[in-house]
Amino acid sequence: MTSTLPSREDVADRLKSLPQVKRWRDGNYEPSEWFTAKPAEEGGAWGSWGHHATPNRRGISFLDLNKADPHEIPDEGPGLIVGREGGADPSSERYEYQMKNKYEVWSTNLESLLDEALSRQWSATTDLPWDKLEPLPEELERALCQFVTFLHIVEFFPTDIIPYWMSRIDPAFPEARLFLATQCADESRHMEVFGKRLFANGGGPGVNPMSGFGGVPLELTAIPVESKAVIAGRGPAWELLGYSYHTQMLGESLVLDFFRFGEFLGRNPFDKEMFRRVLQDEARHVSYGTMHIRYYLDHAPKAERERALEMIHYVASVAEAGSTGFDFLLNSNIIEPFALMAAGGTANLDKGWDYTREFWAKVVEEYLGRCERAGFPRWDKCLLPREVPF
Amino acid sequence: MVKPQRVRIMQQHKVKPLPLPPAEEIKARLKLHPQAAALREGKLHEWFTVPLENSAWSAWGRRAKLEPRGMTYASMNAVSTAPEPPETGSSTLVLSRFIKVKSDDSTQTELTRGGAPKYGSTRELEHRYQVWIDDAGNLAEEALSRQWRPQRSMRWEEMEPLPEELERATDQLMTHLISCQYFCSDVLGPYIGRTHYAFVEVKGYLAYELFDYNLHAGMLRKRILANGGGMGSQVDGYDAGVVEVCNEASQGFEGEVERDFNSMVFAMDVLFNGIVLDILRLAEGSARSRFDQAIYRQMIQDNARHVAWGCKRLRYYLDHCPNREEVVDKLHAAADLIEPGQTAKHLLNPKVLEPLAILLGGGTAKMQQGYAALREFWPQIAEQYLARLDHIGLPRHNRCLIPSEAPF
């Protein structure tokens, strides 16, 4: 950054010579054009006028706000840096936001998910009954901590990436930006709460869960390495739709199923409450991902819809047969502690494995149901076997 | 003419499908997955068989003590084997510092072989001096525990209809503040994914700061659209100087280049948010209903935390970075650019200052009184900014280009 440093006197003189400052110095305090500008729908630089929304017992929800708004949410953002229905001078610059179409970011349940997300924020430090945490038998504490070690690691991943898309969304769709921000806060809190749980009951972090994926010899690799690289390279350079499928709909839905299980099998009031809270958050993310895909496929122009559909099926095939689906469900550092928790102890491990097999079938069934709801049924395409391979 | 996004951000690309083998072939290979064979044995593997002492299990038997306010990072760090982050994070992309990685871990080996590139990943900000602050855990917890829960804490029944000119001034000011929140969110967000997992407390804090900006924008929007008025007019150029420094610092998050997180922190958290904080204080003082006042008060609380984070961060940076003189020069150069730009196009912008004057005076007929109040307040803007810079260790008393007296 190079700059020629003006003197303080120069700067002060320049400021005093600004037209509005001259006007004020002359004692002319009449407000400028913004104060009398007509609303945009009448061709003026003011945004809009005459909005009313009636608060109820819980305030004003985004759902109510948008219902009360006589203006439709536009299909395309105008490229202003102000929120939807904001006005601008005719000379104001417009910006090409990378995500300017409603179908790229919206979902039919977006406002209600957002309202729920805002009302259900919680604190890992203060909002959980840490005093109700009870000592567990050694092998169960070990299983829980190994499982939670995995969750502590993976939960923050979305927050590393989602902000890129937030910045790309035209501010005409503040609901989408804000919902994604709630997900970032949720995931951060999850990383925090699982980290704290690791140390709260005498267990501590377990082995690196990522080492449990196991090495698959090249000759047995189901998916060509080029396609594996496509998935491994997912990140902020991907389109949001691909990410919504891969992470919000597939990855997080698998984790959601684990949370359901965790709540069910929590051995003390604290663990149950922890998983219950996290589950609620995670369910919102999965729901947005699923219904966002649906909205995209229902509203994108025909050619884009066809491309998007082909892309999602491709990503789905690679992910199901790869590290997000099949490999993940076979990770010994995740699935074994899961089985042990289900068993209640090594003495009943067979029972735990039976439960895990049922769990697998249920996970696949629920995932296929979500694909159907999202508008890309995979009943005959899914590469995740419905029957457990062990 | 339509321009590229004002805050530069890497382009997203469509995912291009590649040919895949027939589904039956893939399914047949999945059946041979070695992990499935291992699980069929029904045994428990390494995680269960390694000893609990002196192994990957790094803290077995140590129990964090519950504090009166709950379970804190401090409690956790008191029993962890990694209470302090390292000077440089490990060459892994995803593991927090609490997870112990064995030297023969196959994933670790793969990562160090080249699977953990520095650029574009969480390794970009991998040095402690780049991101850490003292007592980071406390700040992250405060950010979460003091997080605004509008549906619980706002008394919407205290929202009052205002005379049209006051409603219009309020809406214009709030519309502007919404843009400020979006701007901060856009500038900050992508750095979270460039921050190493050795510094989880900082990553967490940044996520909560990101959330605050968006929450504020949403709350202001509700207020604007609920009370008879509507969205006002965009303030062009309010980010003068700041956006240039931030874009140069981030390089649009593209390419294998060093990014300057701390110039962004200076420009956005300390300088820009410092100015927004002053505007919020004026707004709170001029608010025409208790409800509006409560909105600004809450924003002030959150915004003050963001400014405080920025100051702590830069102080730590200047105290620990290996090239202090170079950094000081760079930050001064950024300030030289931003200060006059922010004064001319933000603080003295008619779309920002006039609504404040109307509200402070109590109407257009009393704007003179509003300007008098603004003149009286103005010296605090430079004073508080300079006090922050003193705290950081970047004194600018003889160099600051924000006038100490109102220019009007």
3D architecture notes:
The complex is a heterodimer of chains A (390) and B (408). With 390 residues, chain A is mostly helical. Chain A contains 15 helices and one strand; from the N terminus they run αααβαααααααααααα. In chain A, helix 10 runs antiparallel to helix 15 (349-374) and helix 11 (269-299) runs antiparallel to helix 12 (302-320). The longest helix of chain A is centred in the C-terminal third of the chain and has 31 residues, at 269-299. The model of chain A has no long low-confidence stretch (mean pLDDT 93). Chain B has 408 residues and is an all-alpha fold. Chain B is built from 16 helices and one strand. In chain B, helix 12 packs parallel to helix 14 (324-347). The longest helix of chain B has 31 residues, at 290-320. The radius of gyration of chain B is 25 Å and the shape is elongated. Chains A and B meet through helix 1, helix 2, helix 3, strand 1 and helix 5 of A and strand 1, helix 1, helix 2, helix 3 and helix 4 of B. Strand 1 of chain A pairs parallel with strand 1 (2-4) of chain B.
Descriptive keywords:
heterodimer, A: 390 residues, mainly alpha, B: 408 residues, 16 helices, elongated
What best-fitting shape of chain B do the alpha-carbon axes yield?
Answer: elongated
**Beta-strand content estimate of chain B:** under 5%
Helix content range of chain A: 55-70%
* Count of separate DSSP helical elements of chain A: 15
| Number of strand segments of chain A | 1
**Structural class computed from helices and strand pairing of chain B:** mainly alpha
Topology:
The complex is a heterodimer of chains A (390) and B (408).
Chain A: H1 8-16, H2 19-25, H3 62-68, E1 94-96, H4 102-105, H5 110-119, H6 138-154, H7 157-168, H8 174-200, H9 225-232, H10 240-265, H11 269-299, H12 302-320, H13 326-329, H14 332-343, H15 349-374
Helix pairs in contact in A: 5-8, 5-11, 6-8, 6-14, 7-8, 8-11, 10-11, 10-12, 10-15, 11-12, 11-15, 14-15
Chain B: E1 2-4, H1 23-31, H2 34-40, H3 46-49, H4 73-79, H5 106-115, H6 128-131, H7 136-145, H8 150-153, H9 164-188, H10 200-224, H11 242-250, H12 261-286, H13 290-320, H14 324-347, H15 350-361, H16 367-392
